[in-house]
Specification:
The complex is a heterodimer of chains A (about 475) and B (about 280). Chain A is mainly beta. Helices cover about 5% and strands about 40% of the residues of chain A. In chain A, strands 14, 18, 19, 23, 24, 25, 26, 28, 31 and 33 form a 10-stranded antiparallel beta sheet that branches. An 8-stranded antiparallel beta sheet of chain A has the order 2-5-10-7-8-16-15-12, covered by helices on one side. In chain A, strands 1, 3, 4, 6, 9 and 11 form a 6-stranded antiparallel beta sheet that branches. The chains are: A mainly beta (about 475), B mainly beta (about 280).
């Protein structure tokens, strides 16, 4: 769930909404010296900001903007630190703290360093969702992230290795973090950071690289599909003897396709499927081969779902490339602990398709706002099963009205359930599912759940695609 | 030869604190006047330039899990089974390679190698030096060390043990040199750590050595003398109970142990195989 959340943060930011806090901090570094190369200063925050310029704090668009302050009482061997007050989950002004620190001005030459280090502690033991550097709200080409970092209540030093410092000759993204309350039951806490700086430790060693998290995985796909390389991880052994894993941006890697005619990979790690056939994607970083691979099985041309033709005025769309979609909370809630379904969404020639893998059940939630299906009382869903159809397939779609509170639960929810069977589908072909909504309360619909009903080991489908999910006036 | 090694490294550190403080003057502040070694007359050397099995005129293998030797787990609850297979010991590309593997073999879960010069090369006093790149990871315990050649007749610790270099794979910046003898053995041995500031022992070769005379053992790493043990040291450390037994021939041992009392067992992060690369072993007098 955490990863999902972070992806959402980043996406939200790309909409371009940025709040900038002007900080009244003193800066030590003079801008007088004009050099042919960029500054190689390593310090970012050592009791105060170092050489960051004045406009450097950029919170994520949906985070709590004022979660950050300089604490003038607490510090590591000092009386000042970078303080983050992570808000409670129900804080109306933002339910997590997250920001990037980006130099206001020219970047730095960090090519002589091998790690970002900092001291940190928390008001209670926490797992911080993400800490790193290289995020600049541009291409984020040099982003490096340590996920789920355990921070205790005493000051301790943390090390985030640099995968290939030779690329960091003009880097502005000095530090970034995202901290929520999923691991604390929704309760806020305080994080303190100090002595944030790039260092040459000389003890970052034994790099082990992975693509696809070190597994050899295979994906069935089609001409025109673009999909990102995933599971990029680099693990280092630190001087403490402890391993530290980070997720480097794809551009640190060099990707190789065994058959670029079938599938090519961009520098940014985007795979484009060109023709039918098979290609194996592998990766190196600094000449070191990554464990794992991604086999792309291109099955040829993909038949897109029938293009919707209904009048947009008669439609409230949840997911389509034809209509303007209503806001959706999630297309996969990753419900713990029983859901196994993962998402591997893709696009074919610009047509976005939801792709559920390892399926048992999954939900699309759209509670902000809910959908009024009083008039638009038909639900349309295109569904594609890229495999043989089990003869006893029993596929259930549940439509849930959230009631007057417009929220899941609360005692006022009602549901309607519709079953589909093997006869409703043809292998490798789009099916059009039409569901008249007949339940009494249908003016606050907020959730659609898809699930396998029969024994998942004998009759279920593991994988299907969805497109053109919309309510319409019949 | 039971309980040869120290159980608690903390204790070692504390024990060696007094030595550390008096050594400070001339060893912890290496300068041009520091005399690290004086013995330059080469007696034997193995440069490991012949591929394959190590030179049998100098080295023999110790095989097994210690049971045959009467010390299962080699006296320290170690987990490896030593073999003479090239998977565990070989010479290639000009270096001796000792490899610790994770595999089920003869009832053990790990295999490794242990080479000794017993009965083939034994020497009293001199300078013993090796250039080694070490492995890493929790539970990995390589060593370059000496045992008294009369341990069969005068059971350890009476016969003495000089650990020129020991290292724990989860402390990749630290090695330690130790001496064991009567009333200063196991966790009461005399030992000191040497720590690298901006480098590690598993990423490049380092030189580990001792220079040993009738009344001193000097320990050095890369030309830095970091510990001197003398009869007076033994006296002070043991309140007079210890006995200076470093006055007999000793033989050389090179090995990687896996697990055991000192390093603890490997964990999920320990990567196998792990290799110790020995560029040379040289002995001077």
């Amino acid at each position: 769930m955490k990863n999902k959340r972070l992806i959402k943060l980043v996406r939200a930011f790309s909409l371009g909404l940025v709040l900038t806090l002007i900080l009244g901090c003193e800066r030590d570094i003079s801008d007088d010296a004009v050099e042919a190369t960029f500054s190689n200063i390593g310090d970012v925050f050592t009791d105060n900001f170092v050489g960051m310029g004045s406009d450097f704090y950029f919170p994520f668009a949906d985070s709590k903007f004022d979660a950050f302050s300089v604490d003038n009482n607490e510090g590591y061997n000092s009386a000042a630190s970078y303080r983050v007050d992570v808000p409670n989950a129900n804080d109306a002004t933002g339910n997590y703290a997250g920001a990037i620190l980006r130099i206001d001005g020219d970047g730095r030459d960090l090519s002589s360093y091998d790690a970002l280090t900092f001291w940190a502690k928390a008001s209670q033991g926490v797992s911080v969702d993400a800490l790193g550097f290289g995020q600049d709200f541009g291409e984020n080409k040099h982003q490096v992230t340590a996920n789920n970092v355990s921070v205790g209540t005493n000051w301790a030093k943390y090390t985030i290795p640099i995968p290939d410092a030779s690329r960091l000759v003009n880097e502005r993204g000095m530090f970034w973090y995202a901290a929520g309350t999923q691991a604390t039951g929704g309760s806020g806490y305080v994080l303190w950071f100090d002595d944030i700086k790039f260092e040459t430790l000389g003890t970052i060693a034994q790099p082990r690289l992975a693509i696809a998290n070190g597994n050899d995985i295979s994906i069935d796909t089609f001409i025109g599909v673009t999909l990102p390389v995933t599971g990029l991880v680099e693990t280092y052994n630190l001087a403490s003897g402890v391993d530290q894993s980070v997720s480097p941006a794809p551009s640190y890697y060099t990707f190789t396709s065994s058959n670029p005619g079938v599938a090519s990979v961009s520098e940014a790690g985007i795979i484009t499927v060109n023709t039918a056939g098979t290609a194996v994607i592998t990766a190196t970083l600094n000449g070191l081969q990554a464990e794992g691979s991604l086999t792309v099985n291109s099955l040829g041309n993909f038949q897109l779902a029938p293009v919707p033709t209904r009048n947009p005025d008669d439609v409230t769309s949840i997911f389509s490339d034809v209509y303007t979609n209503t806001p959706v909370d999630f297309f996969n809630g990753f419900w713990e602990p029983f859901q196994t379904t993962l998402s591997a969404d893709f696009a074919v020639d610009g047509d976005n398709i939801l792709n559920y893998t390892n399926f048992n059940f999954v939900g699309n939630q759209f509670a902000n706002p809910t959908v009024d299906a009083t008039e638009k009382s038909n639900l349309h869903v295109n569904m594609y099963i890229p495999a043989d159809i089990p003869s006893d397939l029993d596929f259930l779609i549940t439509i849930k009205d959230f009631g007057a509170d417009q929220a899941d639960g609360g005692g006022d929810d009602t549901i309607q359930q519709v079953f589909f069977f093997a006869a409703d589908f043809t292998s490798n072909t789009w099916a059009t599912l039409e569901i008249p909504i007949t339940m009494a309360n249908r003016n606050n619909i907020g959730l659609i759940i898809y699930e396998n009903i029969n024994n998942p080991t004998t009759s279920s489908i593991e994988n299907f695609y969805l497109d053109n999910i919309y309510f319409y006036v019949p | 030869m039971t309980n040869r090694f120290n159980k608690t490294i903390i204790k070692i550190a504390l024990k060696s604190f007094t030595i550390a403080s008096f050594l400070m003057v001339y060893s912890c502040d290496p300068d041009e006047t520091q005399v690290v070694t004086q013995l330059d007359n080469l007696v034997i050397a193995d440069e490991f330039n012949v591929e394959g099995t190590p030179d049998a005129s100098l080295w023999s293998f110790e095989i097994g899990d210690g049971t045959a030797q009467g010390i299962p787990g080699w006296g320290n609850n170690e987990l490896q089974y030593y073999t003479d297979r090239p998977e565990n010991v070989t010479v290639e590309n000009g270096v001796l390679v000792i490899t610790a593997q994770q595999e089920v073999f003869e009832g053990s879960n790990y295999t490794s190698g242990r080479l000794i010069t017993k009965d083939l090369f034994e020497q009293q006093y001199g300078r013993f030096e090796a250039r080694i790149r070490l492995p890493y990871g929790k539970g990995i315990w390589p060593a370059f060390w000496l045992l008294g050649s009369d341990c069969d007749e005068n059971p350890w610790p009476q016969c003495g043990e000089i650990d020129i270099m020991e290292y724990l794979g989860d402390s990749p910046t630290v090695v330690f040199g130790t001496a064991h003898g009567p009333n200063f053995s196991g966790e009461d041995s005399i030992s000191k750590e040497y720590e690298l500031e901006n480098s590690r022992f598993d990423t490049q070769f380092h030189v580990f050595g001792i220079e040993w005379g009738p009344d001193y053992i000097n320990y050095y790493v890369d030309g830095d003398l970091y510990q001197t043990i003398t009869p007076d040291t033994v006296n002070e450390e043991t309140d007079g109970a210890g006995q200076w037994v470093f006055n007999r021939p000793f033989y050389i041992i090179l090995n990687i142990a896996v697990g055991g009392n000192l390093p603890g067992s490997p964990n999920a992060q320990t990567v196998f195989p792990q290799r110790m690369f020995v560029d040379y072993v040289r002995v001077y007098n």
